[in-house]
Amino acid sequence: MNSARPLYGDIRQNWTKEEALALYEAPFNDLLFQAQTIHRRNFDPNKVQLSRLLSIKTGGCPEDCGYCSQSSHHESGLKASRLMEVERVLAEARKARDAGATRYCMGAAWRSPKDRDMDAVVAMVEGVKALGMETCMTLGMLDGAQAARLGEAGLDYFNHNIDTSERHYGNIISTHSFADRLQTLAHVRECGIKVCCGGIVGMGEEAGDRVDMLVTLANLPEHPESVPINMLIPIAGTPLAQADPIEPIDFVRTIALARILMPKSFVRLSAGRSAMTDEMQALCFFAGANSIFVGDTLLTAGNPGEDHDAALFRRLGIEALEI
Ligand code: SAM
Ligand code: DTB
Ligand code: SF4
Q1: Of the residues 55, 65, 174, which should be mutated to test ligand 3's pocket, given the most ligand atoms within 8 Å of the CB?
Q2: Residue 108 in contact with residue 84, Cβ under 8 Å?
Q3: First-to-last C-alpha distance (Å) of the chain
Q4: Torsion of CA 32, 163, 45, 130, to 10 degrees
Q5: Mean pLDDT of 19-35
Q6: Which residues are marked as active site?
Q7: Which of 78, 108, 231, 300 could staple 57 via S-S, CB 3.0–4.6 A?
Q8: Closest ligand to 103 CA?
Q9: Phi and psi of 212, rounded to 5°?
């Protein structure tokens, strides 16, 4: 082993790219051993948190994110819809709670929310909280006043991903910048809302970009409480439809590095599970992933159904984390 040996479980915000890259490139067994050691110092290794997603406003997004089915810049064939009614959102949330989800994540295909939408969004947060679930929203960029309003409503988490490295960002998205993403994250933190922030791998990035993305997250003033690692779901009609898939072992390395750099954060094995074998998912859990999205739909794309996940959990002796 080299000098990249981390202090087990210590929270650090001064990671260098060189240290993180050395971990990412370490012999696979060494990397996984370190990740699992840190994981079990901070979490029950056999418990996985379950989140459920709902698209509360689908498609027609003015942003040009190259991976996204919901961008109006691409011909993905997705039908755009208006903001869902509050009562419908609450009915869906109740079903998710009854199926075991503890966090309800509501996503809107917006560049940022319009002030006229805020009353409905706040009513959704209050209604879902009243069902006894944690709330998460992902609504695009927020200004300080919007973040404050969501904080006052009691929103638990805001999801806003940096998605890739600063270097690669402009190759994927041109309508907003990496700095814009960091600005929204700062507003969210200032308002006492917990941060859910991660990214996507398999977008033609280099290993160094994955490492840079995780170092950026680990060196934020506070680690995001939740770090979703998405594997690109290639969407026909988007610029990334033909991107080369990531090597499964490299995906597991990315999860392990996230766990080592952010020892107390929930690392979510997020989009892309339908294209993974059970064995790959098992390795991800061993590498420190301890959260997933459940249900057969993410926002617009598919996800393994509850029966499949229940069978996988049984085989692995994993149980759902209760809040
Ligand atoms: N408009 C909001 C925003 O951009 O923050 C919220 C919705 S957006 C769909 C949420 C996240 O989903 C993106 O940041 C990205 O990480 C992930 N995502 C979107 N499309 C994806 C795909 N095809 N494969 C994997 N992850 C994807
Ligand atoms: C995140 O990192 N992944 C989720 C959630 N945050 C909002 C979204 C995944 C979307 C996958 C593609 C789709 O369903 O359209
Ligand atoms: Fe819009 Fe979000 Fe999709 Fe980008 S990722 S196009 S901002 S919905």
Answers
A1: 65
A2: no
A3: 38
A4: 180
A5: 98
A6: 61, 65, 68, 105, 136, 196, 268
A7: 108
A8: 2
A9: -60, -45
C-alpha neighbours within 13 Å on the C-beta side of residue 199: 28
Closest protein CA for atom 6 of ligand 3: 71
- Assess whether the C-beta atom of 163 lies below 6 angstroms from ligand 1: yes
Residue 137 clears pLDDT 50, i.e. is over it: yes
Residue 161 in contact with ligand 1 by CB distance below 6 A = yes
Nearest to 310 by CA among 99, 38, 3: 99
Q: What pTM did the predictor assign?
A: 0.96
3-state secondary structure 153-192: CCCCEEECCCECCHHHHHHHCCCCCHHHHHHHHHHHHHCC
140 lines ligand 3 (CB under 6 A): yes
Phi and psi torsions of 133, nearest 5°: -105, 155
Task: Write out pLDDT tens, residues 1-13.
Answer: 444 555 556 799 9
Other Cβ atoms less than 10 A from the Cβ of 323: the count is 8
Residue 296 DSSP SS3: coil
- CB of 303 sitting under 6 A from ligand 2: no
What is the four-CA torsion angle of 96, 271, 314, 254, rounded to 10 degrees?
-140
Condensed to tens digits (0 to 9), the pLDDT of residues 169-179 reads: 999 999 999 99
Q: Which residue's CA is the closest to the ligand 3 atom numbered 2?
A: 109
Reported as a single tens digit per residue, the pLDDT across 47-74 is 999 999 999 999 999 999 999 999 999 9
- In 10 A of CB 320, how many CB atoms? 16
CA distance 6 to 13: 12
